[in-house]
Specification:
The structure is a homodimer. Chain A is mainly alpha-helical. Chain A folds into 2 domains: about 60 residues, Orthogonal Bundle (Arc Repressor Mutant, subunit A); about 150 residues, GntR ligand-binding domain-like (Four Helix Bundle (Hemerythrin (Met), subunit A)), CATH 1.20.120.530. Chain A is built from 9 helices and 5 strands, in the order αβααβββααααααβ. A 3-stranded antiparallel sheet of chain A has the order 1-3-2. In chain A, strand 2 and strand 3 form a beta hairpin. In chain A, helix 8 packs antiparallel against helix 9. The longest helix of chain A has 25 residues. Chains A and B meet through helix 3 and helix 4 of A and helix 3 and helix 4 of B. The first copy, chain A, binds a DNA duplex through helix 2 and helix 3.
DNA sequence: GAAAACGAACTTGTATACAAGTATACGCCC
DNA sequence: GGGCGTATACTTGTATACAAGTTCGTTTTC
Protein backbone atom coordinates (compact mmCIF):
# COMPACT_ATOMS: atom_id res chain seq x y z
CA UNK A 1 0.00 0.00 0.00
CA UNK A 2 1.45 3.30 -1.04
CA UNK A 3 1.24 6.15 1.41
CA UNK A 4 0.47 9.64 0.21
CA UNK A 5 2.64 12.27 1.78
CA UNK A 6 -0.13 14.84 1.82
CA UNK A 7 -3.44 13.21 2.63
CA UNK A 8 -6.04 15.76 1.59
CA UNK A 9 -4.62 18.57 -0.52
CA UNK A 10 -1.54 17.32 -2.36
CA UNK A 11 0.57 19.90 -4.10
CA UNK A 12 3.28 19.71 -6.73
CA UNK A 13 2.56 19.36 -10.42
CA UNK A 14 2.51 15.54 -10.43
CA UNK A 15 0.11 15.33 -7.50
CA UNK A 16 -2.16 17.95 -9.00
CA UNK A 17 -2.21 15.97 -12.24
CA UNK A 18 -3.21 12.76 -10.46
CA UNK A 19 -5.89 14.54 -8.46
CA UNK A 20 -7.56 16.28 -11.37
CA UNK A 21 -7.29 13.19 -13.54
CA UNK A 22 -9.01 11.07 -10.92
CA UNK A 23 -11.75 13.63 -10.54
CA UNK A 24 -12.41 13.67 -14.25
CA UNK A 25 -12.37 9.89 -14.59
CA UNK A 26 -14.65 9.51 -11.60
CA UNK A 27 -17.02 12.14 -12.99
CA UNK A 28 -16.65 14.52 -10.09
CA UNK A 29 -15.62 16.99 -12.74
CA UNK A 30 -18.27 16.63 -15.40
CA UNK A 31 -17.69 16.58 -19.17
CA UNK A 32 -17.92 20.09 -20.56
CA UNK A 33 -17.35 21.69 -17.17
CA UNK A 34 -15.26 24.81 -17.14
CA UNK A 35 -11.99 24.95 -15.22
CA UNK A 36 -9.89 27.91 -14.20
CA UNK A 37 -6.14 27.78 -13.71
CA UNK A 38 -6.47 30.49 -11.11
CA UNK A 39 -9.17 28.74 -9.10
CA UNK A 40 -7.30 25.45 -9.19
CA UNK A 41 -4.19 27.24 -8.00
CA UNK A 42 -6.12 28.65 -5.07
CA UNK A 43 -7.60 25.27 -4.28
CA UNK A 44 -4.24 23.49 -4.26
CA UNK A 45 -2.50 26.37 -2.56
CA UNK A 46 -0.08 26.90 -5.45
CA UNK A 47 0.38 29.34 -8.25
CA UNK A 48 -0.83 28.74 -11.78
CA UNK A 49 2.47 27.20 -12.83
CA UNK A 50 2.16 23.64 -11.46
CA UNK A 51 -1.56 23.66 -12.26
CA UNK A 52 -0.70 24.52 -15.84
CA UNK A 53 1.77 21.68 -16.13
CA UNK A 54 -0.87 19.26 -14.88
CA UNK A 55 -3.41 20.61 -17.34
CA UNK A 56 -1.02 20.25 -20.26
CA UNK A 57 -0.56 16.57 -19.49
CA UNK A 58 -4.32 16.11 -19.27
CA UNK A 59 -4.65 17.74 -22.67
CA UNK A 60 -2.29 15.10 -24.04
CA UNK A 61 -4.46 12.47 -22.37
CA UNK A 62 -7.46 13.88 -24.21
CA UNK A 63 -9.27 14.58 -20.94
CA UNK A 64 -9.06 18.35 -21.09
CA UNK A 65 -9.45 20.88 -23.87
CA UNK A 66 -7.81 24.28 -23.79
CA UNK A 67 -9.13 27.01 -26.02
CA UNK A 68 -6.57 29.82 -25.97
CA UNK A 69 -7.78 33.00 -24.33
CA UNK A 70 -11.20 31.45 -23.97
CA UNK A 71 -11.06 28.85 -21.28
CA UNK A 72 -10.18 25.36 -20.14
CA UNK A 73 -12.83 22.64 -20.19
CA UNK A 74 -13.21 19.01 -19.25
CA UNK A 75 -13.48 17.14 -22.55
CA UNK A 76 -16.86 15.79 -23.42
CA UNK A 77 -17.01 12.06 -24.10
CA UNK A 78 -16.07 11.75 -27.76
CA UNK A 79 -17.58 8.79 -29.58
CA UNK A 80 -14.73 8.97 -32.06
CA UNK A 81 -12.18 8.82 -29.25
CA UNK A 82 -14.06 5.96 -27.62
CA UNK A 83 -14.01 4.02 -30.87
CA UNK A 84 -10.29 4.55 -31.35
CA UNK A 85 -9.46 3.81 -27.73
CA UNK A 86 -11.43 0.60 -27.86
CA UNK A 87 -9.56 -0.54 -30.94
CA UNK A 88 -6.20 0.20 -29.37
CA UNK A 89 -7.04 -1.33 -26.04
CA UNK A 90 -8.56 -4.35 -27.67
CA UNK A 91 -5.50 -4.94 -29.85
CA UNK A 92 -3.19 -4.58 -26.89
CA UNK A 93 -5.08 -6.67 -24.40
CA UNK A 94 -5.76 -9.43 -26.90
CA UNK A 95 -2.03 -9.69 -27.52
CA UNK A 96 -1.41 -9.72 -23.78
CA UNK A 97 -3.98 -12.46 -23.15
CA UNK A 98 -2.63 -14.54 -26.00
CA UNK A 99 0.87 -14.21 -24.62
CA UNK A 100 -0.36 -15.14 -21.15
CA UNK A 101 -2.24 -18.17 -22.41
CA UNK A 102 0.62 -19.40 -24.59
CA UNK A 103 3.43 -18.90 -22.10
CA UNK A 104 1.43 -19.45 -18.91
CA UNK A 105 1.34 -17.25 -15.83
CA UNK A 106 3.01 -17.62 -12.43
CA UNK A 107 0.76 -18.92 -9.68
CA UNK A 108 0.83 -15.58 -7.84
CA UNK A 109 -0.67 -13.81 -10.86
CA UNK A 110 -3.46 -16.38 -11.19
CA UNK A 111 -4.32 -15.96 -7.53
CA UNK A 112 -4.37 -12.18 -7.87
CA UNK A 113 -6.79 -12.46 -10.75
CA UNK A 114 -8.99 -14.73 -8.66
CA UNK A 115 -8.98 -12.15 -5.90
CA UNK A 116 -9.98 -9.44 -8.34
CA UNK A 117 -13.00 -11.47 -9.44
CA UNK A 118 -13.98 -12.07 -5.83
CA UNK A 119 -13.73 -8.33 -5.14
CA UNK A 120 -15.99 -7.66 -8.07
CA UNK A 121 -18.61 -10.07 -6.81
CA UNK A 122 -18.43 -8.40 -3.41
CA UNK A 123 -18.74 -4.90 -4.85
CA UNK A 124 -22.48 -5.15 -5.40
CA UNK A 125 -23.86 -1.85 -6.58
CA UNK A 126 -20.79 0.21 -5.63
CA UNK A 127 -19.86 1.35 -9.12
CA UNK A 128 -16.50 2.74 -8.17
CA UNK A 129 -15.40 -0.34 -6.28
CA UNK A 130 -16.60 -2.52 -9.13
CA UNK A 131 -14.58 -0.45 -11.57
CA UNK A 132 -11.44 -0.64 -9.43
CA UNK A 133 -11.70 -4.41 -9.22
CA UNK A 134 -12.28 -4.59 -12.96
CA UNK A 135 -9.12 -2.56 -13.54
CA UNK A 136 -7.22 -4.79 -11.17
CA UNK A 137 -8.23 -7.91 -13.07
CA UNK A 138 -7.07 -6.55 -16.38
CA UNK A 139 -3.90 -5.16 -14.91
CA UNK A 140 -2.74 -8.51 -13.57
CA UNK A 141 -2.19 -9.88 -17.05
CA UNK A 142 -0.52 -6.73 -18.37
CA UNK A 143 1.98 -6.80 -15.53
CA UNK A 144 2.61 -10.54 -15.52
CA UNK A 145 3.83 -11.31 -19.03
CA UNK A 146 7.23 -9.68 -18.62
CA UNK A 147 7.10 -6.89 -21.19
CA UNK A 148 7.49 -4.08 -18.72
CA UNK A 149 4.90 -1.49 -17.90
CA UNK A 150 2.15 -2.26 -20.39
CA UNK A 151 -0.61 -1.21 -18.06
CA UNK A 152 0.18 2.49 -18.36
CA UNK A 153 -0.43 2.21 -22.10
CA UNK A 154 -3.75 0.47 -21.56
CA UNK A 155 -4.64 3.04 -18.92
CA UNK A 156 -4.00 5.99 -21.22
CA UNK A 157 -6.58 4.57 -23.61
CA UNK A 158 -8.92 3.36 -20.94
CA UNK A 159 -9.38 6.86 -19.54
CA UNK A 160 -11.45 7.69 -22.60
CA UNK A 161 -14.16 5.26 -21.68
CA UNK A 162 -13.82 4.93 -17.95
CA UNK A 163 -16.36 7.67 -17.80
CA UNK A 164 -18.68 5.67 -20.02
CA UNK A 165 -18.39 2.74 -17.66
CA UNK A 166 -19.16 4.85 -14.62
CA UNK A 167 -22.19 6.38 -16.31
CA UNK A 168 -23.51 3.00 -17.32
CA UNK A 169 -22.92 0.99 -14.18
CA UNK A 170 -25.03 -0.59 -12.97
CA UNK A 171 -28.04 0.59 -14.95
CA UNK A 172 -27.06 -0.28 -18.49
CA UNK A 173 -24.33 -2.86 -18.18
CA UNK A 174 -25.27 -6.29 -16.85
CA UNK A 175 -22.80 -6.74 -14.00
CA UNK A 176 -23.20 -10.50 -13.76
CA UNK A 177 -22.31 -10.83 -17.43
CA UNK A 178 -19.04 -8.95 -16.97
CA UNK A 179 -18.02 -11.12 -14.04
CA UNK A 180 -18.87 -14.24 -15.98
CA UNK A 181 -16.67 -13.08 -18.83
CA UNK A 182 -13.79 -12.47 -16.46
CA UNK A 183 -14.23 -16.00 -15.15
CA UNK A 184 -14.17 -17.38 -18.70
CA UNK A 185 -11.02 -15.43 -19.57
CA UNK A 186 -9.17 -16.57 -16.48
CA UNK A 187 -10.20 -20.19 -16.94
CA UNK A 188 -9.03 -20.15 -20.54
CA UNK A 189 -5.65 -18.69 -19.59
CA UNK A 190 -5.34 -21.31 -16.88
CA UNK A 191 -6.07 -24.02 -19.41
CA UNK A 192 -3.52 -22.46 -21.77
CA UNK A 193 -6.24 -22.13 -24.39
CA UNK A 194 -5.26 -18.99 -26.27
CA UNK A 195 -8.10 -19.15 -28.77
CA UNK A 196 -10.84 -19.30 -26.16
CA UNK A 197 -9.11 -16.65 -24.04
CA UNK A 198 -9.01 -14.27 -26.98
CA UNK A 199 -12.64 -14.85 -27.91
CA UNK A 200 -13.78 -14.31 -24.33
CA UNK A 201 -11.83 -11.08 -23.96
CA UNK A 202 -12.98 -9.86 -27.33
CA UNK A 203 -16.61 -10.24 -26.33
CA UNK A 204 -15.85 -8.58 -23.04
CA UNK A 205 -14.35 -5.47 -24.61
CA UNK A 206 -16.90 -5.09 -27.40
CA UNK A 207 -19.64 -4.26 -24.91
CA UNK A 208 -18.29 -0.74 -24.41
CA UNK A 209 -19.28 0.50 -27.85
CA UNK A 210 -22.90 -0.50 -27.46
CA UNK A 211 -22.85 1.03 -24.01
CA UNK A 212 -21.54 4.35 -25.29
CA UNK A 213 -24.09 4.67 -28.06
CA UNK A 214 -26.80 3.73 -25.58
CA UNK A 215 -25.67 6.56 -23.32
CA UNK A 216 -26.00 8.96 -26.20
CA UNK A 217 -29.74 8.82 -25.64
CA UNK A 218 -29.72 9.23 -21.87
CA UNK A 219 -26.91 11.77 -21.54
CA UNK A 220 -26.71 13.73 -24.81
CA UNK A 221 -25.19 16.75 -23.08
CA UNK A 222 -22.16 14.80 -21.88
CA UNK A 223 -21.40 13.05 -25.13
CA UNK A 224 -19.98 14.44 -28.34
CA UNK A 225 -21.56 12.60 -31.25
CA UNK A 226 -18.62 13.17 -33.60
CA UNK A 227 -18.55 9.83 -35.39
CA UNK A 228 -19.92 11.25 -38.64
CA UNK A 229 -18.24 14.63 -38.40
CA UNK B 1 1.76 19.69 -48.17
CA UNK B 2 1.60 21.62 -44.93
CA UNK B 3 3.40 24.94 -44.76
CA UNK B 4 5.25 25.95 -41.65
CA UNK B 5 4.66 29.52 -40.67
CA UNK B 6 8.19 30.01 -39.34
CA UNK B 7 10.69 28.25 -41.56
CA UNK B 8 13.90 28.11 -39.54
CA UNK B 9 13.43 28.97 -35.87
CA UNK B 10 9.86 28.20 -34.86
CA UNK B 11 8.71 29.44 -31.50
CA UNK B 12 5.79 28.64 -29.26
CA UNK B 13 5.65 25.62 -27.01
CA UNK B 14 4.20 23.26 -29.63
CA UNK B 15 6.77 24.16 -32.27
CA UNK B 16 9.61 23.82 -29.80
CA UNK B 17 8.31 20.39 -28.86
CA UNK B 18 8.25 19.25 -32.47
CA UNK B 19 11.71 20.63 -33.14
CA UNK B 20 13.42 19.05 -30.15
CA UNK B 21 11.58 15.79 -30.68
CA UNK B 22 12.72 15.57 -34.27
CA UNK B 23 16.30 16.32 -33.28
CA UNK B 24 16.28 13.54 -30.71
CA UNK B 25 14.67 11.02 -33.04
CA UNK B 26 17.09 11.93 -35.82
CA UNK B 27 20.04 11.64 -33.45
CA UNK B 28 21.14 15.23 -33.81
CA UNK B 29 20.75 15.34 -30.05
CA UNK B 30 22.56 12.24 -28.87
CA UNK B 31 21.36 9.87 -26.12
CA UNK B 32 22.74 10.97 -22.77
CA UNK B 33 23.41 14.50 -23.97
CA UNK B 34 22.76 17.26 -21.52
CA UNK B 35 20.21 19.97 -22.23
CA UNK B 36 19.64 23.31 -20.56
CA UNK B 37 16.30 25.07 -20.40
CA UNK B 38 18.11 28.39 -20.45
CA UNK B 39 20.21 27.60 -23.51
CA UNK B 40 17.19 26.27 -25.38
CA UNK B 41 15.29 29.42 -24.49
CA UNK B 42 18.09 31.52 -25.93
CA UNK B 43 18.18 29.38 -29.05
CA UNK B 44 14.46 29.66 -29.73
CA UNK B 45 14.31 33.28 -28.67
CA UNK B 46 11.87 32.60 -25.86
CA UNK B 47 11.93 32.34 -22.12
CA UNK B 48 12.20 29.09 -20.23
CA UNK B 49 8.43 28.75 -19.97
CA UNK B 50 7.54 27.36 -23.41
CA UNK B 51 10.77 25.35 -23.47
CA UNK B 52 9.75 23.78 -20.20
CA UNK B 53 6.34 22.83 -21.52
CA UNK B 54 7.96 21.14 -24.49
CA UNK B 55 10.38 19.27 -22.25
CA UNK B 56 7.59 18.02 -20.01
CA UNK B 57 5.86 16.48 -23.00
CA UNK B 58 9.08 14.84 -24.11
CA UNK B 59 9.47 13.39 -20.63
CA UNK B 60 6.06 11.78 -21.07
CA UNK B 61 7.26 10.43 -24.40
CA UNK B 62 10.23 8.84 -22.65
CA UNK B 63 12.67 10.80 -24.80
CA UNK B 64 13.98 13.09 -22.08
CA UNK B 65 14.86 12.57 -18.44
CA UNK B 66 14.72 15.35 -15.90
CA UNK B 67 16.60 14.96 -12.66
CA UNK B 68 15.41 17.73 -10.35
CA UNK B 69 18.03 20.32 -9.54
CA UNK B 70 20.58 18.23 -11.42
CA UNK B 71 19.87 18.57 -15.08
CA UNK B 72 17.88 17.57 -18.15
CA UNK B 73 19.20 14.81 -20.42
CA UNK B 74 18.27 13.08 -23.65
CA UNK B 75 17.22 9.57 -22.63
CA UNK B 76 19.60 6.80 -23.51
CA UNK B 77 18.13 3.99 -25.61
CA UNK B 78 16.55 1.67 -23.06
CA UNK B 79 16.41 -2.00 -24.07
CA UNK B 80 13.51 -2.44 -21.70
CA UNK B 81 11.63 0.40 -23.34
CA UNK B 82 12.45 -0.98 -26.79
CA UNK B 83 11.09 -4.38 -25.79
CA UNK B 84 7.88 -2.89 -24.45
CA UNK B 85 7.44 -0.54 -27.38
CA UNK B 86 7.92 -3.37 -29.83
CA UNK B 87 5.25 -5.44 -28.10
CA UNK B 88 2.78 -2.56 -28.14
CA UNK B 89 3.49 -1.55 -31.69
CA UNK B 90 3.36 -5.12 -32.87
CA UNK B 91 0.01 -5.75 -31.19
CA UNK B 92 -1.42 -2.58 -32.65
CA UNK B 93 -0.14 -2.90 -36.18
CA UNK B 94 -1.07 -6.56 -36.41
CA UNK B 95 -4.63 -5.64 -35.49
CA UNK B 96 -4.54 -2.87 -38.07
CA UNK B 97 -3.25 -5.12 -40.82
CA UNK B 98 -5.77 -7.81 -40.01
CA UNK B 99 -8.56 -5.25 -40.17
CA UNK B 100 -7.22 -3.95 -43.48
CA UNK B 101 -6.96 -7.42 -44.97
CA UNK B 102 -10.38 -8.50 -43.79
CA UNK B 103 -12.31 -5.37 -44.72
CA UNK B 104 -10.19 -4.33 -47.68
CA UNK B 105 -8.71 -0.91 -48.40
CA UNK B 106 -9.76 1.89 -50.76
CA UNK B 107 -7.79 2.06 -53.98
CA UNK B 108 -6.20 5.37 -52.99
CA UNK B 109 -4.65 3.79 -49.91
CA UNK B 110 -3.24 0.88 -51.90
CA UNK B 111 -1.67 3.29 -54.36
CA UNK B 112 -0.18 5.34 -51.54
CA UNK B 113 1.41 2.23 -50.10
CA UNK B 114 2.84 1.40 -53.52
CA UNK B 115 4.32 4.86 -53.71
CA UNK B 116 5.92 4.44 -50.29
CA UNK B 117 7.61 1.24 -51.41
CA UNK B 118 8.88 2.97 -54.54
CA UNK B 119 10.26 5.81 -52.43
CA UNK B 120 12.07 3.32 -50.29
CA UNK B 121 13.66 1.67 -53.27
CA UNK B 122 14.75 5.07 -54.52
CA UNK B 123 16.18 6.11 -51.17
CA UNK B 124 19.35 4.09 -51.57
CA UNK B 125 21.73 4.75 -48.70
CA UNK B 126 19.94 7.87 -47.47
CA UNK B 127 18.98 6.55 -44.06
CA UNK B 128 16.65 9.38 -43.19
CA UNK B 129 14.77 9.24 -46.46
CA UNK B 130 14.48 5.49 -46.13
CA UNK B 131 13.07 5.86 -42.63
CA UNK B 132 10.54 8.48 -43.75
CA UNK B 133 9.32 6.22 -46.53
CA UNK B 134 9.12 3.33 -44.09
CA UNK B 135 6.99 5.42 -41.75
CA UNK B 136 4.80 6.44 -44.65
CA UNK B 137 4.14 2.83 -45.61
CA UNK B 138 3.08 1.87 -42.11
CA UNK B 139 1.02 4.99 -41.68
CA UNK B 140 -1.13 4.33 -44.72
CA UNK B 141 -2.76 1.33 -43.09
CA UNK B 142 -3.23 3.03 -39.72
CA UNK B 143 -5.03 5.93 -41.35
CA UNK B 144 -7.09 3.91 -43.81
CA UNK B 145 -9.09 1.51 -41.65
CA UNK B 146 -11.41 4.15 -40.23
CA UNK B 147 -10.65 4.04 -36.54
CA UNK B 148 -9.45 7.60 -36.28
CA UNK B 149 -5.94 8.71 -35.54
CA UNK B 150 -4.21 5.44 -34.76
CA UNK B 151 -0.88 6.57 -36.18
CA UNK B 152 -0.20 8.93 -33.30
CA UNK B 153 -0.38 5.97 -30.94
CA UNK B 154 2.00 3.94 -33.07
CA UNK B 155 4.26 6.95 -33.32
CA UNK B 156 4.49 7.43 -29.59
CA UNK B 157 5.83 3.90 -29.30
CA UNK B 158 7.92 4.06 -32.42
CA UNK B 159 9.98 6.96 -31.09
CA UNK B 160 11.66 4.56 -28.70
CA UNK B 161 13.28 2.62 -31.49
CA UNK B 162 13.46 5.09 -34.31
CA UNK B 163 16.89 5.88 -32.97
CA UNK B 164 17.79 2.21 -33.16
CA UNK B 165 16.75 2.14 -36.78
CA UNK B 166 18.80 5.20 -37.65
CA UNK B 167 21.85 3.79 -35.91
CA UNK B 168 21.54 0.50 -37.72
CA UNK B 169 20.70 1.65 -41.25
CA UNK B 170 22.20 0.66 -43.51
CA UNK B 171 25.04 -1.17 -41.82
CA UNK B 172 23.23 -3.74 -39.72
CA UNK B 173 19.79 -4.02 -41.26
CA UNK B 174 19.48 -5.57 -44.70
CA UNK B 175 17.55 -2.91 -46.61
CA UNK B 176 16.46 -5.19 -49.41
CA UNK B 177 14.90 -7.56 -46.90
CA UNK B 178 12.79 -4.79 -45.39
CA UNK B 179 11.50 -3.70 -48.77
CA UNK B 180 10.69 -7.27 -49.67
CA UNK B 181 8.68 -7.64 -46.49
CA UNK B 182 6.73 -4.48 -47.26
CA UNK B 183 5.90 -5.91 -50.66
CA UNK B 184 4.73 -9.17 -49.10
CA UNK B 185 2.53 -7.31 -46.62
CA UNK B 186 0.93 -5.16 -49.26
CA UNK B 187 0.33 -8.09 -51.59
CA UNK B 188 -1.33 -10.06 -48.81
CA UNK B 189 -3.62 -7.16 -47.90
CA UNK B 190 -4.49 -6.78 -51.56
CA UNK B 191 -5.34 -10.47 -51.76
CA UNK B 192 -7.44 -10.11 -48.57
CA UNK B 193 -5.29 -12.79 -46.98
CA UNK B 194 -5.22 -11.76 -43.32
CA UNK B 195 -3.15 -14.70 -42.13
CA UNK B 196 -0.31 -14.10 -44.56
CA UNK B 197 -0.45 -10.36 -43.95
CA UNK B 198 -0.08 -10.86 -40.23
CA UNK B 199 2.78 -13.32 -40.58
CA UNK B 200 4.65 -11.00 -42.95
CA UNK B 201 4.25 -7.99 -40.67
CA UNK B 202 5.21 -10.01 -37.63
CA UNK B 203 8.48 -11.02 -39.23
CA UNK B 204 9.02 -7.43 -40.30
CA UNK B 205 8.65 -6.04 -36.80
CA UNK B 206 10.62 -8.71 -35.00
CA UNK B 207 13.84 -7.59 -36.66
CA UNK B 208 14.11 -4.58 -34.39
CA UNK B 209 14.92 -6.56 -31.25
CA UNK B 210 17.84 -8.35 -32.84
CA UNK B 211 19.01 -5.02 -34.21
CA UNK B 212 18.93 -3.37 -30.81
CA UNK B 213 20.89 -6.07 -29.06
CA UNK B 214 23.39 -6.04 -31.92
CA UNK B 215 23.88 -2.31 -31.39
CA UNK B 216 24.65 -2.94 -27.76
CA UNK B 217 28.08 -4.14 -28.88
CA UNK B 218 28.87 -1.30 -31.28
CA UNK B 219 27.37 1.62 -29.30
CA UNK B 220 27.42 0.65 -25.61
CA UNK B 221 27.56 4.28 -24.52
CA UNK B 222 24.23 5.13 -26.18
CA UNK B 223 22.31 2.13 -24.94
CA UNK B 224 21.05 1.34 -21.48
CA UNK B 225 21.25 -2.42 -20.95
CA UNK B 226 18.44 -2.50 -18.40
CA UNK B 227 16.73 -5.74 -19.41
CA UNK B 228 17.97 -7.65 -16.36
CA UNK B 229 17.86 -4.76 -13.93
C1' DG C 1 51.36 17.97 -0.97
C1' DA C 2 46.79 16.31 0.27
C1' DA C 3 42.41 16.59 2.02
C1' DA C 4 38.55 18.83 3.65
C1' DA C 5 35.53 22.71 3.76
C1' DC C 6 33.61 26.65 1.86
C1' DG C 7 31.68 29.35 -1.91
C1' DA C 8 30.18 30.60 -6.35
C1' DA C 9 27.80 29.27 -10.47
C1' DC C 10 24.98 26.40 -12.24
C1' DT C 11 20.39 23.30 -12.22
C1' DT C 12 15.15 22.75 -12.01
C1' DG C 13 10.63 24.04 -9.45
C1' DT C 14 7.56 27.61 -8.29
C1' DA C 15 5.66 32.29 -7.82
C1' DT C 16 4.57 36.58 -9.76
C1' DA C 17 4.09 40.08 -13.43
C1' DC C 18 2.88 41.34 -17.92
C1' DA C 19 0.77 40.85 -22.70
C1' DA C 20 -2.82 39.74 -25.92
C1' DG C 21 -7.28 38.31 -26.72
C1' DT C 22 -12.29 37.12 -25.50
C1' DA C 23 -16.83 37.47 -23.36
C1' DT C 24 -19.96 39.95 -20.85
C1' DA C 25 -22.40 43.53 -18.86
C1' DC C 26 -23.58 48.08 -18.69
C1' DG C 27 -24.77 52.41 -20.64
C1' DC C 28 -25.94 55.23 -24.36
C1' DC C 29 -28.25 56.30 -28.49
C1' DC C 30 -32.01 55.80 -31.53
C1' DG D 1 -38.07 49.23 -25.48
C1' DG D 2 -34.42 47.51 -28.57
C1' DG D 3 -29.93 47.50 -30.47
C1' DC D 4 -25.30 48.83 -30.68
C1' DG D 5 -20.81 50.25 -28.69
C1' DT D 6 -17.63 50.53 -25.23
C1' DA D 7 -15.35 49.33 -21.09
C1' DT D 8 -14.24 46.12 -17.71
C1' DA D 9 -13.24 41.78 -15.92
C1' DC D 10 -12.08 37.66 -17.12
C1' DT D 11 -9.15 33.92 -19.97
C1' DT D 12 -4.63 31.65 -21.44
C1' DG D 13 0.38 32.37 -23.13
C1' DT D 14 4.78 34.14 -22.06
C1' DA D 15 8.45 36.57 -19.50
C1' DT D 16 10.79 37.41 -15.38
C1' DA D 17 11.99 36.87 -10.45
C1' DC D 18 12.80 34.08 -6.59
C1' DA D 19 13.73 29.67 -3.90
C1' DA D 20 15.98 25.38 -2.97
C1' DG D 21 19.32 22.11 -4.16
C1' DT D 22 23.54 20.10 -6.67
C1' DT D 23 28.07 20.28 -8.59
C1' DC D 24 32.46 21.79 -9.19
C1' DG D 25 36.34 24.72 -8.36
C1' DT D 26 39.05 27.15 -5.14
C1' DT D 27 40.98 28.07 -0.94
C1' DT D 28 42.42 27.10 3.41
C1' DT D 29 44.25 24.20 6.78
C1' DC D 30 46.81 20.43 8.46
Amino acid sequence: MRVRRTPTVPSGAAAIYETIRAEIVHMRLMPGERLSENELGLRFGTSRTPVREAILRLVDDGLIEVRPQRGTFVSRISLKAVKRARFVRSALELAIIREAAERGLPRAAIEEAERAIADQQAAGNDARRFKDADDHFHRVFADAIGFGDLWSVVESQKAQFDRVRLLSLPDVTPVALLIGQHRAILDAVRARDAGTAERSLSAHLSIIVETATALLRTHPDLIDDDLNA
